[in-house]
Specification:
heterotrimer, A mainly alpha (303), B mainly alpha (214), C mainly alpha (494), B: 214 residues, mainly alpha, 74% helix, C: 494 residues, two-stranded antiparallel ribbon, 19 helices, 78% helix
Chain lengths: 303, 214, 494
């Protein structure tokens, strides 16, 4: 067993909240603010972990299970994910399907927990979350399938290892479509503008945030941490795709990967700064377009 | 070279899909301008080996006409006929997009059935040309506004232009000039017609142009 | 005279005419007279040229860009006759409107310039030896004639114009795709980029052209030019445009614009036939669309109340008959070409009379236009005569050509086609005869002033009518010879 392989998930566990703060810092800079300290997410998590949890008397065990399961699935997903030059500890043919469904399982429990509270707002958020993620899922799977075809590999590690400069030069159009699709999926799955606004404070317009309103203390910390892990997973895939561009500048793989991560985070921050949130009924069109784009790429590649 | 061609063709596909999913009339004009530009570049690409003055003039002319003059005419028509900003479809945007993506394999199949001897450098553009034609036709039948039909007609013409590049490469310049002139006049005439229809009817919805029957 | 000078003259003269009528300060009367003079001058230029083609064979100029053979020369005759008659009638028709105060110099200028432009475009269609240039001509006729429909800006006229403009433009765009496919066959057979569009050069290598691509191209062409011809089911624009346009313009549409598009289709038939081993593939398509058009028009003719729409549906029917004739081949080709001339002058005459009666009765509703034979004997008689001829009454030339088409159907054993053709024509006969009788013999409506027709009116009505009668009973030898030459171009040996 190669212990080095575990460096990837471990570094992810440590660095995931930091990614969040890079996005926040980008948004703050573009808005002309100074922004919170870069370590603020860690402080928040630490603060929440020290507090006690409050449970409503109408909730059941499902409510308590929600945050735990979503965190657990997030961590499990990390083990399928290669980082930089390091392959993932776990890699087998078709593991990207497992990745998609692990994230789906986490979401399923978050939704169940939200429904368990019996609050109308949380039910509304759950309904939106399910609608949008069910539309985002085909886009994710089609994009990954296209990547499969492009690299002739069937595990996530092999796929991302197969993305190199030759592939960029040879199949630029298809790769660009995949990146766009995954970008849209990232924004949708992680409740980012233009799909959802992570900083909104109006229950009526919330999607993800409204589902976790009733969680407190360590539960909320689990939830938030799980969310940053999910963001990390998507960003890491995208970073793996843009890595060859940085490698072309002569950076070693791990540094190129870090630069890729920063690129993705800054891109998210810029997107959030320059775009307004879409009207709720326009979101399905965006996600549908992403799915169709991925279909297109897959078709053009299949030919 | 091949990459550049493929990127241009992909841009053409995407521009058609954007048209199918677009909700704003102004977006149509932008996409039309973009398509004109792509077409001009494709023409240049085809003749890259042997650039002649008349190729340059023709591709320059078609870029000028299709990506500047036509959009300008359309914008003028929008302003003068006071066209409302939204597109108003018979077939919804999402359905249009799905139909568009389903049309694409069909066009590839159609192109593969065509045993024509293609221009070697442009062979891969035939299915996309057919797709562009199909998108144009779809826009003509699936959108309510008369202006949208003009846009659909232009897209159809663009598709035919690309097919011509793929099938015969070079058309005698007199013919090409005549074709360009005809299309220019067509857009011009349609613009005037739009203006007059708007003045007489106070709207430009083709589904309400139905007093003549039988 | 030099034939190249004549050919160029036929293109340039209308341009000069168009520029002339646009000069400021001309009165309506002058513009209308210029219109007639210009068209007659172009006809005068055309005559020696046509003579030369029939006597000495095809004329080819400018490396084959301009080309006139028996088929195009024959169509040129029809074009010039229809244009001359229509121009004469336009002078009368718009002169009357001018006196009623609904036609001003601005409209006259627009009309005359577009009229000349249309003439030039149609001449270009006929004299170009290049299939691409031919397409340019057809598309130009669409655009130029669009505004002729709405000389009077009314909502319905605009509606008709929009439908015409859009449907025909899209249709003709398809034809361009077909042209390109044909050209690609030519290139594959080793022709250069100009020669691949030249009809004569393509014919020379016809057996080497790729049949599958050519078939696909012909399908595009059939849909494309078929739209402009008004073949069912692409005919939607036709009744609207014909009924809303001023009568002289309708006459032009029906009398030659449809034929111009059909002429383009005819150009491709021998090419496709030769390349696909003379199996009759393209001809069968023409038979199918022809019969569909006849039957569909018949159905609409029965229930028609608007006299101009009635005539428009007759156009669809007769275009179908011509397509059927070409499709049957042999004697059918000959008869179809003969029918082209008969239908064109008969239909022009019909629109002339319908238009003039419409001015007198202030309506085109056939339930109101009654007793026309007594109210306006010349125009009423003309309409009766043309309607009778259109439905195939015996001594008229249209009966003869339809009869020959039936003979051709029998000769080639196409009994299904024959049956359907007879059915359609029979329905039309019964349906339209009723209309014709009420228009002519009904009790005249009071309050319509009796019309005193001048000598020019009589010429406009009686000349075509007597020609139709004459050709019905006796065909001069030179007519038969000319038709045979034209039919020979279509690959038919009699």
């Amino acid at each position: 067993m190669n212990y080095l392989a575990f460096s990837a998930p471990l570094s992810a566990l440590v660095l995931a909240p930091f990614l969040q703060s890079v996005i926040n810092r980008t948004k703050a800079t573009l808005a002309g603010r100074q922004g919170q300290p870069l370590l603020q997410p860690y402080h928040d998590l630490w603060k929440l972990l020290r507090k006690g949890a409050v449970y409503s008397s109408v909730t059941t065990v499902i409510f308590r299970l929600g945050p735990t399961v979503s965190l657990a699935t997030g961590i499990m997903a990390l083990f399928l994910l290669p980082l930089g030059g390091f392959p993932a500890p776990l890699a087998f043919a078709g593991d990207f399907l497992l990745l998609a469904y692990l994230l789906g399982l986490g979401r399923f429990f978050t939704v169940l927990a939200a429904l368990d509270t019996g609050s109308s707002f949380e039910g509304m958020g759950a309904s939106r979350e399910v609608l949008f993620s069910s539309l985002a899922e085909p886009a994710l799977l089609l994009a990954l399938a296209t990547l499969c075809r492009l690299t002739d590999a069937s595990s996530l590690s092999a796929m991302l290892a197969g993305v190199n400069q030759d592939l960029w030069l040879g199949t630029l159009p298809a790769l660009l479509i995949v990146i766009c699709t995954l970008g849209v999926v990232l924004l949708a799955e992680n409740c980012r503008i233009p799909v959802d606004d992570p900083t909104t404070h109006l229950e009526l317009t919330m999607i993800h945030e409204v589902m976790v309103l009733d969680h407190s203390g360590p539960d909320l910390a689990f939830n938030n941490y799980g969310a940053t892990l999910k963001l990390w997973v998507f960003s890491a895939i995208l970073a793996g795709l843009v890595m060859p561009l940085w490698q072309a500048l002569g950076l070693p793989p791990w540094l190129a990967f870090g630069a890729g991560m920063l690129t993705v985070a800054i891109a998210i921050g810029v997107t959030e700064s320059v775009m307004a949130r879409l009207r709720m009924d326009r979101v399905p069109k965006l996600l549908l377009s992403a799915s169709l784009l991925a279909t297109l790429a897959l078709f053009l590649q299949q030919r | 070279m091949k990459m550049l061609l493929e990127s241009l063709l992909l841009a053409l596909i995407l521009s058609n899909l954007v048209l199918l999913g677009s909700t704003r009339v102004r977006n149509y004009v932008k996409v039309i301008a973009l398509q004109g530009f792509i077409l001009g570049l494709l023409t240049l690409l085809l003749h890259l080996g042997a650039l002649s003055i008349h190729t340059l003039l023709l591709s320059g002319g078609s870029i000028l006409l299709k990506s500047l003059v036509f959009p300008w005419l359309l914008i003028r028509a929008i302003r003068e006929a006071d066209v409302h900003a939204s597109v108003e479809p018979f077939v919804g945007y999402n359905a249009s997009l799905i139909i568009g993506v389903l049309l694409l394999p069909f066009c590839f199949w159609l192109a593969s059935r065509l045993p024509a001897q293609l221009m070697p450098t442009m062979a891969s553009s035939l299915p996309i040309a057919l797709f562009t034609m199909a998108s144009g036709l779809f826009l003509i039948v699936a959108r309510k506004k008369a202006l949208t039909q003009v846009v659909g007609y232009l897209v159809l013409e663009n598709g035919i232009y690309v097919s011509a590049l793929a099938l015969v490469g070079e058309i005698p310049w007199i013919v090409e000039l005549g074709v360009l002139l005809d299309i220019f006049v067509a857009v011009f005439v349609m613009g005037i017609a739009l203006y007059q229809i708007n003045r007489e009817f106070d709207h430009i919805y083709t589904d309400q142009l139905s007093s003549l029957k039988g | 005279m030099n034939s190249s000078l004549l050919l160029w003259g036929m293109l340039i003269l209308p341009a000069i005419g168009a520029a002339w009528v646009l000069l400021p300060g001309l009165s309506v009367q002058t513009i209308l007279k210029l219109l007639v003079a210009g068209v007659l001058a172009v006809s005068a230029l055309g005559m020696p040229l046509i003579w030369q083609v029939f006597a000495a064979g095809p004329v080819q100029l400018v490396d084959g860009w301009l080309f006139l053979d028996a088929l195009s020369a024959y169509h040129l005759v029809v074009l010039l006759v229809v244009f001359s008659l229509s121009s004469l009638f336009a002078m009368r028709y718009f002169g009357f409107e001018y006196r009623s105060g609904i036609f001003d110099a601005l409209q006259a200028r627009k009309l005359a310039a577009l009229w000349f432009g249309t003439l030039a475009a149609m001449v270009l269609v006929l004299i170009s030896g290049n299939l691409g240039l031919m397409w340019v001509g057809i598309e130009a006729t669409t655009l130029l004639t669009a505004f002729l429909i709405c000389v009077h800006l009314t909502p319905v006229a605009l509606e008709a114009m929009w439908k015409y403009l859009l449907i025909c433009s899209v249709g003709v765009a398809f034809a361009f795709m077909g042209t390109i496919l044909v050209a690609s066959c030519g290139r594959a057979a080793g022709l250069g980029d100009t020669a691949a569009l030249q009809w004569t050069r393509l014919m020379a290598v016809a057996p080497r052209l790729d049949p599958a691509t050519l078939k696909m191209g012909f399908l595009f062409l059939l849909v494309g030019y078929g739209t402009k011809v008004g073949l069912a089911p692409f005919h939607n624009w036709l009744p609207d445009a014909h009924s809303q346009a001023p009568a002289p313009v309708s006459a032009l549409f029906s009398g030659f614009m449809l034929n111009a598009a059909l002429y383009c289709l005819m150009r491709y038939v021998p090419l496709v036939e030769q390349s696909t081993g003379n199996a009759g593939w393209s001809r069968q398509l023409l038979v199918g669309f022809g019969i569909l058009s006849i039957l569909l028009a018949a159905a609409f003719i029965i229930f028609q109340h608007d006299v101009k729409r009635l005539l428009a549906y007759h156009s669809i029917e007769h275009m179908g008959i011509i397509a059927l004739g070409i499709g049957l081949g042999g004697l059918g080709t000959f008869a179809a070409l003969f029918h082209v001339f008969n239908h064109s002058i008969c239909k022009s005459l019909g629109f002339f009379c319908a238009g003039r009666l419409g001015q007198l009765y202030q309506t085109h509703d056939m339930r109101s236009i009654v007793g026309a034979l007594r109210t306006a004997p010349v125009w009423g008689g003309g309409l009766l005569g043309s309607l009778l001829a259109l439905i195939g009454f015996a001594p008229f030339a249209l009966f003869m050509s339809e009869f020959q088409i039936m003979q051709a159907a029998v000769a080639s054993g196409a009994f299904w086609s024959l049956g359907l053709f007879v059915l359609g024509v029979g329905v039309v006969f019964v349906g339209a005869l009723g209309h014709a009788i009420t228009i002519a013999f009904g009790e005249p409506v009071s309050g319509i002033p009796a019309e005193a027709a001048g000598w020019l009116d009589r010429v406009i009505v009686y000349l075509p009518l007597s020609a139709l009668l004459l050709l019905g009973v006796w065909m001069p030898g030179f007519v038969i010879k000319a038709l045979e030459q034209a039919a020979h171009v279509l690959g038919t040996a009699l």
